Amino acid sequence: xxxxxxxxxLIIGLAIAIIQAVFPMxxxxxxxxxxxxxxxxxAGAQFLFLGISFACLIYAFLSSDFSVKxxxxxxxxxxxxxxxxxxxxxxxxxxxxxxxxILSGWGVAxxxxxxxxxxxxxxxxxxxxxxxxxxxxxxxxxxSNPFERLPFPPVEGRTLNPLLxxxxxxxxxxxxxxxxxxxxxxxxxxxxxxxxxKLDAAWARWARPWTNIAWIFLTGGITLGSWWAYxxxxxxxxxxxxxxxxxxxxxxxxxxxxxxxxxxxxxxxxFKSWTVxxxxxxxxxxxxxxxxxxxxxxxxVHSFAADPERGLFxxxxxxxxxxxxLTLYAAKASKLESTGRFELVSREVGLLVNNITLAxxxxxxxxxxxxxxxxxxxxxxxxxxxxxxxxxxxxPLGTVLFLMMGVGLFLRWKKDSPERLFKKLLxxxxxxxxxxxxxxxxxxxxxxxxxxxxxxxASWIAxxxxxxxxxxxxxxxxxxxxxxxxxxxxxxxxxxxxGITLTSMYSTEKDVRLDAxxxxxxxxxxxxxxxxxxxxxxxxxSAIRATIEISQKGKPFITLYPEKRNYGPGTMPMTxxxxxxxLFRDLFIALGEPLGKGAWSFRIYHKPFVRWIWLGGILIAxxxxxxxxxxxxxxxxxxxxxxxxxxxxxxx
Amino acid sequence: MxxxxxxxxxxxxxxxxxxxxxxxxxKAMQGNFYKLYTPKAVLVGEVPIGQVVRIGxxxxxxxxxxxxxxxxxxxxxxxxxxxxVTIVTNKILPDLFKEGKxxxxxxxxxxxxxxxxxxxxxxxxxxxxxxxxxxxLKKEHTPITKVKEGAK
Lengths: 652, 152
What we know:
By secondary structure, chain A is of the alpha+beta class. Chain A has helices at about 1-30, 35, 40-60, 70-75, 80-85, 90-115, 120-145, 165-195, 200-230, 245-270, 270-295, 310-330, 345-375, 385-410, 420-440, 450-470, 480-505, 610-630, 630-650; strands at about 385, 510-515, 520, 525-535, 540-550, 555-560, 565, 575, 580, 585-595, 600-610.
């Protein structure tokens, strides 16, 4: 009964989405304020019904109702409760329901916190969000019903892919989806503004905090995914340029460009048409990411089912969204004349370079990601694009981008003098150069220009950000939150660059064979394989566990226990690495396979500064959070509420 | 600066950006695309020697042999028509690697006709067959026997 309620609520959700898409927009056209006012309650209703539907699915998983096909295929009575819940989105249908539910959540949030927006604009925004929801709800109901029943329910479920039975993975998809779907808000604002033909600084101001929040979630989701891949996949890498990873990086790159170009549009009324284009691009890339990951065109841990019908539906939906919005853009772009004038040396141009570099980076990563699919579709052959392709493009583009990051902060809007700029930048440039030249000496390794370059860029960004922040007048606590945000965002990026540089250049990675009681030395640590235990029992798995005693300069240092887990017949074996984490280095050891005569294979890694990559990701996201809560967004709301109160007062 | 001059500068910047991007892409593409081949392609000499490529196919049952002293493993990869290629690797084989199941190895074919793999992948769905490998194996129709000389 409960699953049927869920299914029914989903259908009601679709009906409501249609109302949300049609009536407010018609209301604007026919000048019917009541129809426009419908947007707000309807958004609430949609959230309610999709919430009911989602709750029903969670209930089905919690109660292990194996008559529901989805539960039978992805759950198991012995699974810990948290993974029963997370398996709701550990599959295609459930994750799409989560996508749509989050979309309705964003809709409600916009309708609640955007009271200062004129009703006409809000009506249009909500209509566009309704249209997106229609697409996804149709997709769910027509091709991927999560509530499908089985005529003969099995006694036990087929359990969740053990790779996904992990806390990181319980949180990673919802975070990422919050980001993906969040870009639909910026997208809807852009479309609504184009429909209204009024693309002034106001729309950018309304869209900015929403875009920031979406971008924070995406940053967090990607960071979490990278961390998870590191400790759970058992390969010890933090980024593989895998197509599914690129699928999340692409909207992030476009979103980063968007966050910055919105600033120009808001403050200087420039880059108007470019910002609109970026908003369309960021959301389209989010849809493309969903398509790539969920349609099964790529083989990976993320693709659940290779169902051509579904792939086709998303592809058509993608074409409608991109085609439709670009057509609208083509029709309206001529009207989007930017009024803000600026000179060649100005912050506008600094941000322009930032945007162009990010756009080129986005397009080249997109090319590398889609190229194998295109070649395959043409029937020319099957290729895969190696990480060197992506590294070769991101190194020079990143260098341009990161150098500009330091300059950009100090640039003045509209017009700046090169002499003034030069004077300001001389000090951080010199310190960064000194760090770049002498920094590598702290590591007892061969000199590499890449390390110098990485340290140069990282210290350049961090120094300029801190100096700029210090110069923002006022005492520490009176600085605007947006300044705090920019500082954290930039310093976070510097931390990421430091981590990437040092871990890429100075890591030691060895695949070795160890006989019982034999050892191997890596980076001054000696790893001794002392014991192997078989058939250890976990809650829903059995494990083989090795004992590795690590010593440094003859003194015992720590003992790690890498495991190989088996989650029952029909599932993949899992590698659970033994990791000793630290701020300056990680020791990573993963158990390989038995090689006979008591010998086993191991992966032994020494990874300096690897944690800085995720630490930086957290700092960046935190910076975005601070910026989103800057006073001026609240001020517009406060002013609005005050006016409203005054109006009420005069009426009484 | 006049508006026209400024526009000119921006257009030039745009052209430089586009040219720079095409140059980068062109350069990055060289040698970084790994084509997927079948064992048959190795035997008829289609696979360039000394270049990084990938070989996909099924691992022959009973062919996996390990060294007694090193990590080294060697195994034979088959296509549907039993064309065989020997693969040698010094890396850990993935959890999903099994005899009789499919794999994709990335590495270099050397003069001796043996494929030296830097990485062995066994990514696949529940049916133990990545779509890629299924596709290329399907295309194989004609068995090739005793053309091993052609490997050079």
